[in-house]
Amino acid sequence: MAKTIDEILQKYYDEADEGMVQKAPSTLNRGEGTEKEYFIYKIDLVGSTIFTWSRSHQTYLKMAHTFLSAVDEITRRYGADDNQVEYAGDSVIAYFPKSVGAINVLAAAYVCRDATLRMKSLDATLKKFPYFTKTVVHFGKLIMAKIGPHGDSMVSAIGPELHKACKMEKNVSAGEGRASKEFMGQLEGRQKILLKGNYKETQVLKQPETNPISRGLLAEAFSKYIDPSPLLSITPNNLSPFAIQKGISTPLNLLSALAPPVQPSNHTLQYETKRELIDYSIRWDMIPKYFEMSRK
């Protein structure tokens, strides 16, 4: 059996060895992959599993089928790749070619969210579910590859950018949507108002200001003197005019200027707030207003 396992592993390893090529995804051979830029859209129906635990399988079937199929059709209508729509539990991942444009991906995300909220009107049982969704949109290069058990007939999207999009969902609260910095970079002009920045704030120690003159004298002095005792014999007449102008008129003042800066005590430490942009929240209420203004 060990030999058989080794043979299986070697077979598929050889198929993928040096398999990155410049081809259209539809022309790839098994084990080959090519890079292509995509918008990644992920929507998840929050809490549906818990909701259906105490209800019939028929209810779960209706909910899952309606949600997954509706999102699938809507995303395709807005330009998602027909061959790149994935289902993972109660979530959908759709891939939009770069040519579709980020603004149309946001429009698709808005319509999918709105359609999901309307599901509660279908029957009395489904009305009891809140229909909160989590949405993530991202942009990046994906590896389109014919791999895995369906590699003979199906092209799959893989790569770090897909993992990044999925990890973003951890920071999304129910009912909200997040967009990556890369996605924001694909929006143009007024379209950027549809996203709002999210920042991480941390307190960092504020660096004390140091007199540049002292640093210069310190560097120059220690480059010439190893033993500081000769400095004590310097008289004001021997000091450079520059040093006298800066108030260093005695050897003692010179030594004081050459001394390293005193570190502040814990009582005098000062901190400043550092803001780091993490991602963006989707402003759902602004999307229909934007398209209404665009039509005028």
Automatic annotation (TrEMBL):
Domain of life: Bacteria
InterPro entries attached to this UniProt entry: Nucleotide_cyclase
Name this polypeptide is given: Adenylate cyclase
